[in-house]
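Transcriptional regulator, LysR family: structure, please.
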Amino acid sequence: MAEPKWDDLRVFLAVARTESLSRAGKTLRLDPATVGRRVARLESALEAVLFMKSPQGYALTQAGARLVARAEAIETAMFNAQEDVLGGAETMTGQIRVGAPDGCANYLLPQVCASICADNPGLEVQIVALPRVFNLSKREADMAITVSPPTAGRLTSQKLADYHLHLMASRDYLAAAPALSKLEDLKDHTIIGYISDLIFDTELDYLSEIGGPRTKFASNSVSVQLNWARVGSGLVIGHDFALPFAPELTRVLSDQFSLKRSFYLVRHADDRNISRLGLFAKELGKRVRQEVVRLEGRT
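Here you go.
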């Protein structure tokens, strides 16, 4: 049995995580044929079949599943060796991908990540804004921001920050709409909210807190909801930290209704020894907390 090459193990991990030669190729910037040859070369070196092709994609065999943990350990060692060569433990370099719900991704992460990169010129940050839970085991992201801590899997989490939400509407809408002085008046108003069957976390079910009124306008995107409110379509439960980006909106009934939620930073347990990810997580946590306080203070 020949000694496997790191380049082939790197390709193996990409296929294991994406379950596809083409998706792995996009991640690695290789064509699918090259990815397939690398996998075949690794299987030949190890004298084992690592994947079974199915209609759903490339599924790990038992041998492939056993190899994943060993390959990830080598990956961690390679990351740390690269960091040592490029500048030591206090340097953040290379690419880091962060997954986040789109409210956080749109209104907090751009300026926070820009400030971190300004202090670390060798760092590249990708923000993946998706209204769903990220699969860190498949390396969809290096870390993810969530609205609930994980309850399963080899994951670690730390609380980033508390944030607040209130009912909001544009001044134009309020000028033309029926009177609104108490929560019971909401029955006479147009409500904007989430598509109920696409709410991926109960912490996002804001409207249930006010009796679950029927929505006339609904989206799985916080930004779409907020923009509907900005053009005068109705009332929305919005993030206080987003208000400075939507000057058309004002909070309503804030003395009668408010919500507090939290952001958590979730990482794969196997990444705890990758120093640049640890440094980035520390800076991200500190600066997200500062930015939430700053933006909420402007509301």
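Notes: The mean pLDDT is 88.
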